[in-house]
Amino acid sequence: xxxxxxxxxxxxxxxxxxxxxxxxxxxxxxxxxxxxxxxxxxxxxxxxxxxxxxxxxxxxxxxxxxxxxxxxxxxxxxxxxxxxxxxxxxxxxxxxxxxxxxxxxxxxxxxxxxxxxxxxxx
Length: 122
Description:
Elements: H1 2-42, H2 44-47, H3 56-69, E1 79-84, E2 91-96, E3 98-103, E4 108-113
Antiparallel strand pairs: 1-2, 3-4
């Protein structure tokens, strides 16, 4: 009886570790992706005149390319691009709305993420 409890306990612990690992990896990928969104929106080169301003389609394609690095599948309609201001004072706001399905051994769940290029106050 004691061995059965130990085996059952180890199995439950193993399932919890597997679930935690998969969820944590999705959360970490989202944090890294959000950092990339901030970098894209900053457009440092365009602000100092080193490159021409990019179109909304170019920005969406760049965001999709960055998302692929984290195995995040995006469609252009999931990406919001807004321009604020004009000239040298213009800024770009990027937001993405996507879901990731996490398949666990006995259960699957969907995580919803909405990263953006703005810093959120906690």
